[in-house]
Amino acid sequence: MRLKIIVSGIVQGVGFRPFIYRTAVKNRLKGYVRNRGDSCVEIVVDGGDEDIKRFLRDLIEKKPPLARIYEVITTPIESTGENYEDFKIYRSSDEAELSGSVIPPDIAICDECLMEMRDPSNPRYDYFFITCVNCGPRYTIIEDVPYDRENTTMRDFQMCGFCKSEYMDPINRRFHAQTVACPRCGPRAYLLDANGGIVECRDPIREAGRLISEGCIIAVKGYGGFHIAASTLLDEPLKRLRAAKHRRQKPFAIMARSLEAVKSFAKVSSWEEKVLTSYERPIVLLEKGENYYLSELISPGLHNVGVMLPYTGLHYMLFDWVKDPAFVMTSANPPNQPIIKDDDEALRKLRGLVDYFLMHNRRIAHRCDDSVLRLHGYKPVFIRRSRGYAPEPIRLRLKARSSALGLGGEKNNTACLVVGDKAFLSQHIGDVENLETLVFLESASKRLMRLTNSNVDVVACDLHPKFATTMLASRLSEEYGCRVLQVQHHYAHTAALLAEHGLNEIIAICCDGYGYGLDGGAWGGEIIFGSLNPLEFKRLGHLEEQPLLGGDMATRYPIRVAAGILYKRVDIEEWLMENSINLPHGLREAQLILSKLKRGDVRIKTTSCGRVLDAASAILGVCYERTYEGEPAMKLESAAINGRNVIELEPQIRGTTLETTNIIVSLFEGRKVYSRRDLAYSIHYYLARGLAKLAVDLAIEYGVKSIGFTGGVACNQIITDIMRSFIEESGLNFFVHEAVPPGDGGLSFGQAIAAAFSQD
Ligand SMILES: [Zn+2]
Ligand SMILES: [Zn+2]
Ligand SMILES: [Zn+2]
């Protein structure tokens, strides 16, 4: 019998052809295997019926660990024509007929490679970019499909005889590993000084580690871009870094030398340990340990710290000459710009900021930031889904009617392509406020289409008329001759939750900072009904509207929000004047705020949950200025850890609105009586209980069994836990995001889902 087999999924760059080769030979089959231009693998086998049956079973059951098989299409073919003498790996073909396969994400160095790197008798001893068929960069080095060396940035390096012999050897684990390299033929590392001059040293990587330990700031080129590395024990370099990056408070991620080192300064649950050591190697937000001894400048005012483990040989080697438990490893990017990936760009943009550059001479085809997540118990919550995960698709329970591209909103953006029953989410793109990021968004979108061999029927974007992404959507729709669908922000969050769990309908509690409402208002604390038909989406309830004094100024300085709410019930003059030192223009500004309130001159109002948390944060003296997205609310959560509900205010629901004025006033009045921790906890409790109650009431009224929680506030564990227990006690199901970020990093997914399933 002779059979043609097409395998779709993640089957290129994961050792699939070598595996097929070995399996075919084992089963005495002749024929060939090859990669195709649509990221699929094509196989022809010729042999006995029983042998072919066993081959097909092995193909599914014994596939390589990183491979994902979506579909196996078999077609019997005539045994005439070409005669196969044995089984071969053929040259790849450009043929592309199927959509929906993709190449894998970057994979952390595997244990076997790490062992070889540490073995003085191994030819790759000390080689910082040691990889094999099971590990190494993929997504960040691929310029085109099929995944062959000449389509990657490894094509700049000619394999030496030794590497070639392993590459050609069917029983070697580097058989057809496209990233194979060694000290003789592969990428080299070198150290440059602040002016880009070469620093002569025998061991540039370990020398860089020593310099970091001593207090230098070093730009380190990795797989998907540049990091900025610094000591975690010394304050001086961190002060310097914060001043130069204009980043006063935003937490820095750190890379620890080992799991044991992590445990010396942070609490690590068994679930967190599993994620930290996974081959995706994300940054995990961990609670600081009792004896936390790293610099307070790493994550000021927060109870947690973002930690990752090394994921390349280079990272491991950085720690070899030093005793430091960890180094700061923050993405190198100018404010609101994508992570830096090119050497000349790094030298230009980081000049004056870093003392040295640790470079290597392999080009980065596509940038990719580190992923960030935290665990609520055993459930992962993505803050950012990027390296290690992108572009692996999220599988949907249903097949979409049309293929759709979602472009996200404005902050923390990603792109998402929905094709059939898969959603391909791009790497982290960032805040699309300037040209560089917008260009990155467009290229990442087109790359997803190219890698998956897909076209789009509809481009989805936000409802906000002035977002750059809205304009990009209309331009792309013209380019592709397809339609545009504008999806309301909180509808998109809700659609994301529906799709992720394969639900038909849901009542979603959707809480974040800001989303353009159907009425043009500033929404952000919403109860939304959603179903698979986007036309049925409906806003059922929301938080009380509160004044946003000065619009964006209020978002930046939460005292303004607090003043607007408090003014309705209490005399705030004394408090406001006392706190005027926390306003950029001091007393004068405080007086201006007061006179505006007296005149009733407040035009902008918001139902945002984030703004209520911000107001509480300012009243309790936790945070007076938002220097990064979500800062006042994040610090409020940190302040509330282990707190109690002392206010005991029952949720005040009027109609379908949860009131927020009284709880804010209660916090204000409770300041003299209760601890900051208990008050911080009380506002969490009130909002969580109140929103959950409102959602349960509405779910019963509408006969819906499932309630979900989405939006950026769903990263907050205290609120999520309280909601969960109340909703589950009510006999309803509670859903949160596990595969995509609840914040705006998951927005493009929801938009694309709404568009792909729309009836039009
Ligand atoms: Zn390996
Ligand atoms: Zn070599
Ligand atoms: Zn949002």
Give the SSE layout.
Blueprint: E1 2-10, H1 16-26, E2 30-35, E3 41-46, H2 49-61, E4 68-76, E5 87-89, H3 111-117, H4 161-168, E6 189-193, H5 204-214, E7 218-221, E8 226-231, H6 235-245, E9 254-256, H7 259-265, H8 270-276, E10 283-287, E11 304-308, H9 313-318, E12 326-331, H10 343-349, E13 356-360, E14 372-376, E15 379-384, E16 394-395, E17 404-406, E18 416-419, E19 422-425, H11 435-451, E20 458-462, H12 468-480, E21 483-487, H13 489-501, E22 505-516, E23 522-531, E24 538-543, E25 546-547, H14 552-556, H15 559-566, H16 573-578, H17 586-599, E26 605-606, H18 609-619, H19 631-640, E27 653-654, E28 657-658, H20 661-670, H21 676-702, E29 706-710, H22 717-729, E30 733-735, H23 747-756
Parallel strand pairs: 2-5, 7-13, 9-11, 10-14, 17-20, 20-21, 22-29, 24-28, 29-30
Antiparallel strand pairs: 1-3, 1-4, 2-3, 6-13, 7-8, 8-12, 9-12, 10-11, 14-15, 16-19, 17-18, 18-19, 22-23, 23-24, 25-26, 27-28
Helix pairs in contact: 1-2, 13-23, 15-18, 18-19, 18-21, 19-21, 20-21, 21-22
Bound molecules: zinc ion (ZN) (3 copies).
Structural summary, described in words:
There is one protein chain. The chain is α/β, with parallel strands linked by helices and 760 residues long. It folds into three domains: 1-181, DHBP synthase, CATH 3.90.870.50; 189-360, DHBP synthase; 543-735, Nucleotidyltransferase, domain 5, CATH 3.30.420.40. It contains 23 helices and 30 strands. The protein has a ten-stranded mixed β-sheet with strand order 6-13-7-8-12-9-11-10-14-15, sandwiched between helices. Strand 18 (416-419) and strand 19 (422-425) form a beta hairpin. The two termini are 46 Å apart. The structure holds zinc ion (3 copies).
